[in-house]
Automatic annotation (TrEMBL):
InterPro entries reported in the protein's UniProt record: AIG2-like_dom, GGCT-like, GGCT-like_sf
The name this protein goes by in its record: Gamma-glutamylcyclotransferase
Residues of the Gamma-glutamylcyclotransferase AIG2-like domain: 44-132
Length: 136
């Protein structure tokens, strides 16, 4: 393996795990939404980009296993979800610690683009879900 490949790999690893400068900055809305330290792990239901393990790795900075999950009463609408009492939204549920929730809030631009709601999944468990902030 060439030195250039090793240096590139190390740079990517540090950038993803330790210095995610590509994530949007922490805003007052994000700070206000953070749970008290140590209240995790936090379960998150992803139905769009967060279903992809590579995206979860880039956003969370670590491999994050996920299981299939469903949310009754919603359907997917692009990068958002809409209420629909006859629908069942499929996605993935995964657990994050406080640091991971903060990184997700930054990625989703909590308070500016998305909000984080607590929902009850079809199996009866609770999880956070990100929903697009809409004017309508």
């Amino acid at each position: 393996m060439s030195l250039a490949v090793v240096v590139l790999g190390l740079t990517l690893w540090v950038g993803i795990v330790h210095l995610p400068v590509w994530l949007p900055p922490v805003t007052p809305a994000i700070i206000a939404a953070q749970p008290l330290p140590g209240q995790g792990p936090h379960r998150v239901f992803g139905y769009a980009t967060m279903t992809n393990p590579a995206i979860r790795l880039a956003v969370l900075g670590r491999v994050t296993p996920a299981q299939e999950a469903r949310l009754a009463g919603f359907r997917r609408d692009g990068r958002d979800m809409r209420p629909d009492q006859d629908a069942m939204l499929s996605g993935m549920v995964f657990a994050v610690d406080d640091r991971g929730l903060l990184r997700l809030d930054r990625y989703e631009r909590l308070g500016a683009r998305y909000r984080r709601d607590s929902v009850t999944l079809a199996d009866g468990s609770r999880a956070w879900v990100y929903r697009l902030i809409r004017d309508d």
